[in-house]
């Protein structure tokens, strides 16, 4: 049967373009009618490419591919979410050991399926990268968790930090405000570093145990050292500023997508014993754990809603680009 869909794409000029398409589900794919989609900063990186935008989709399954019942328990009517990845190969060493986010032959946003995107009415999605949304999570809150939430949860889930450890979080924004919530609910001390004193009350409300500005970093002896540092700010910081507040053998996770080089020297890594870890969106198992944890502990993004129309996409992208979004935009399909 398949589905005819409308999708909002980028273009060579950077304008949002409305397009149409059709998809018949492949054997391990399902058709999902999109109800909500988060607006991620990474969408901006592909604004000048002729591809469907949006990769934080949530919706209802309307059709199953011929083999879906053989490889999964998804059924028509399930509420599901999808993120950065569209499909994992399932046969490489990384997939077989639970590290699907390091799959050697994945399909993901920006490299495949340019005709479709979650800024649209429907998508076809492979079940290897599809996730059921727990009942406790509202659809409007689920979208930003599929990429933003998974991105910040992954290092907290896999790095070895434990309850009581100190998690440094640079930035109180689309990623940072989620990182604060996850870290605090996991029993860690969420130590926030921000260039804006005005965000202190919000950071504390999200669960931060401490809040510091650049003026505080000028006196690092007054700050207890952190065991892990998550960089969630839109601009990469000068890491040398943070070395004095890092514990020996600490880990740094640059989570913001950036093409800029990081200012770090081997001597700094040797002296402090620090490790800089590349960490993308979560593996399938970690993604499921994130959703379950968010559902149990009531973790949700602070959102602004826009209609899932061409004008809504333009407005949401502009607000995000201008740094005015507080803190995640969500597109809502017309009823």
Summarize the structure.
The protein is α/β, with parallel strands linked by helices and 335 residues long.
What would you say this structure looks like, in words?
The protein is α/β, with parallel strands linked by helices. The protein has two domains: 3-147 and 282-332, Quinone Oxidoreductase, Chain A, domain 1; 150-276, NAD(P)-binding Rossmann-like Domain (Rossmann fold, 3-Layer(aba) Sandwich). The chain has helices spanning 41-45, 68-71, 93-96, 139-158, 176-185, 200-206, 214-217, 266-272, 284-297, 310-321, and strands at 3-9, 17-23, 29-39, 57-64, 79-82, 85-87, 107-108, 122-126, 130-132, 166-170, 189-193, 210-212, 226-231, 246-254, 275-276, 303-307, 328-332. Strand 16, helix 10 (310-321) and strand 17 form a beta-alpha-beta unit. The model has no long low-confidence stretch (mean pLDDT 96). One of its GO terms (molecular function) is zinc ion binding.
How is the topology of this model organized?
Blueprint: E1 3-9, E2 17-23, E3 29-39, H1 41-45, E4 57-64, H2 68-71, E5 79-82, E6 85-87, H3 93-96, E7 107-108, E8 122-126, E9 130-132, H4 139-158, E10 166-170, H5 176-185, E11 189-193, H6 200-206, E12 210-212, H7 214-217, E13 226-231, E14 246-254, H8 266-272, E15 275-276, H9 284-297, E16 303-307, H10 310-321, E17 328-332
Parallel strand pairs: 10-11, 10-13, 11-12, 13-14, 14-15, 16-17
Antiparallel strand pairs: 1-2, 3-4, 3-8, 3-17, 4-5, 5-9, 6-7
């Amino acid at each position: 049967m398949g589905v005819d869909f409308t999708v909002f794409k980028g273009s060579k000029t950077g304008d949002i373009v409305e397009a149409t398409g059709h998809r018949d589900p492949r054997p391990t794919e399902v058709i999902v009618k999109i109800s909500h989609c988060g607006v991620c900063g990474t969408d901006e990186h592909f604004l000048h490419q002729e591809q469907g935008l949006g990769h934080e989709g949530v919706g209802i399954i309307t059709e199953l591919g011929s083999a879906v019942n053989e490889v999964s328990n998804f059924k028509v009517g399930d509420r599901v979410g999808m993120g950065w990845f569209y499909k994992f190969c399932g046969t490489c060493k990384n997939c077989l050991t639970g590290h699907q986010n390091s799959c050697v032959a994945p399909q993901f946003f920006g490299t495949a399926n340019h005709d479709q995107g979650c800024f649209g009415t429907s998508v076809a999605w492979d079940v290897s990268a599809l996730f059921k949304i727990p009942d406790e999570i509202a659809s409007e809150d689920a979208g930003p968790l599929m990429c933003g939430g998974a991105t910040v949860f992954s290092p907290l889930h896999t790095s070895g930090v434990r309850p009581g450890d100190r998690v440094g979080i640079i930035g109180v924004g689309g990623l940072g405000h989620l990182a604060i919530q996850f870290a605090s609910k996991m029993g860690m001390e969420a130590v926030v570093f921000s260039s804006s004193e005005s965000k202190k009350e919000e950071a504390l409300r999200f669960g931060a145990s401490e809040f510091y500005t650049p003026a505080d970093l000028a006196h690092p002896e007054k700050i207890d050292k952190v065991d892990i540092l998550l960089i969630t700010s839109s601009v990469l910081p000068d890491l040398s500023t943070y070395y004095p507040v890092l514990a020996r053998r600490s880990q740094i996770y640059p989570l913001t997508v950036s093409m800029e080089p990081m200012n770090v020297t081997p001597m700094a890594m040797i002296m402090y014993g620090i490790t800089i870890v590349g960490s993308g969106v979560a593996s399938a198992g970690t993604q499921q754990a994130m959703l379950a944890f968010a559902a149990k502990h009531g973790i949700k993004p602070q959102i602004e809603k826009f209609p899932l129309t061409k004008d809504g996409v333009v407005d949401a992208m502009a607000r995000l680009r201008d740094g005015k979004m507080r803190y995640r935009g969500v597109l809502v399909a017309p009823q």
